[in-house]
Design brief:
Strand content: 15-25%
CATH topology of one domain: Rossmann fold
Structural class: alpha/beta
Radius of gyration: 23 Å
Number of helices: 11
CATH class of one domain: Alpha Beta
Distance between the termini: 33 Å
Largest sheet: 6 strands, mixed
Bound molecules: adenosine-5'-triphosphate
CATH superfamily of one domain: P-loop containing nucleotide triphosphate hydrolases
Low-confidence stretches: none
Number of strands: 14
Order of helices and strands: EEEHEEHEHHHEHEHEEHEHEEHEH
Oligomer: single chain
Helix content: 25-40%
Length: 306
């Protein structure tokens, strides 16, 4: 549905481009997880898709039409749910929704229907008359989503929609994203929570320094990674720790758990022999296909929450 082709974008007064030749496809009804370390270019890409910024080179097409032309024909069909809360705390939930629907130029009758649908979708009926300033963090996140839905969009751009909320609200939001896609909606989802992306996104793209490092179905992206090693040992690493860290700089050792996001097969037997010689028993070991976080670290050399 959305084709992003060789997109470049550089902010004025910066020497490095924020996006440096990004090409991606997002299929209709799909949920694409967009991952990248801080400063990778995720918000810039979302801003270009939302029309807040204009491409400097390259292009975006929707259903084969240039984004601008498509947007002119479907003015409310792409909605951005921003990272920050974007509503008026002194207004009620219903008043906020009506205001933002009005700001999109939606006629009064349709506005009422769209707002009711958004309230129902985000399960905000019980607080519709309440001032937003009085709501919990989880309900505010749900309102942020509901505001994004007031234009009855086909595409939702979600910029870290679950930051700072409790597990129950997080679960609600993830489920809402899945419901939106199941009903034919298309989603671009950025998050720093790898387990969320693994749970809801069939496709992922990992970007860094404005470039796509890998993109495709989640299973294929994981299959494309190098093997990883996770060890649970009987006690924290002894003197070996410094030596291992020097040999495997991306190793992390926390308590009795030692993780190597990338580990060569021929180094496995010698490593286990070193542990045995140091008198450290291995209680559990996983070696093989990496999870998404390990692929991310292999490609970006960052933990996602760095
Ligand atoms: P984060 O995860 O921290 O939100 P991000 O992946 O969304 O990061 P962007 O916000 O798109 O990354 O930033 C990409 C690059 O562009 C960074 O180097 C950033 O410093 C730079 N940048 C972003 N906004 C501006 C701006 N308004 N002016 C100048 N440079 C900017």
């Amino acid at each position: 549905m959305i084709r992003i082709d060789s997109l470049h974008y550089r902010y004025r007064a910066t020497s490095q481009p924020a996006l440096d030749g990004v090409s991606l496809d997002i299929g209709r009804g799909g949920i694409l997880g967009l991952l990248g370390p801080n400063g990778a270019g995720k918000t810039t890409l979302i801003s270009l898709l939302a029309g807040l910024l204009a491409p400097q080179e390259g292009g975006i097409a929707v259903d084969g039409e240039p984004l601008e032309a498509w947007r002119a024909a479907h003015p409310t069909a792409i909605a951005l749910v921003p990272q920050d809360y974007a509503f008026y705390p002194m207004l009620t939930v219903a008043e906020n929704l009506d205001f933002f629907a009005g700001a999109q130029g939606i006629p009064r009758r349709q506005r009422r229907d769209n707002c009711a649908a958004a309230i129902a979708f985000a399960c905000l009926e019980a607080v519709a008359g309440q001032r937003v300033g009085e709501l919990s963090g989880g309900l505010r996140r749900r309102l942020n989503l509901a505001i994004g839905l007031t234009g009855a969009p086909e595409v939702l751009l979600l910029d870290e929609p679950t930051v700072g909320i409790d597990p129950q609200s997080r679960h609600f939001l993830l489920n809402a994203v899945e419901r939106f896609a199941a009903a034919g909606g298309t989603v671009l989802y950025t998050s720093h929570y790898m387990e969320e992306v693994e749970a809801v996104c069939a496709d992922v793209a990992i970007i860094d320094h404005g470039k796509v490092l890998t993109a495709g179905p989640l299973v294929e992206v994981k299959r494309g990674g190098a093997p990883a090693l996770n060890l649970e040992i009987a006690r924290p690493l002894p003197d070996l720790a410094a030596d291992w860290q020097a040999r495997f700089p991306e190793m992390t050792a926390v308590g009795n758990t030692v993780d190597f996001p990338e580990f060569p097969a021929d180094a496995l037997a010698p490593l286990l022999a070193e542990l045995a010689a140091a008198g450290v028993a291995v209680e559990r070991m996983r070696y093989g296909a990496p999870n998404l976080e390990e692929v991310f670290m292999q490609l970006t050399h960052h933990a996602l929450r760095d």
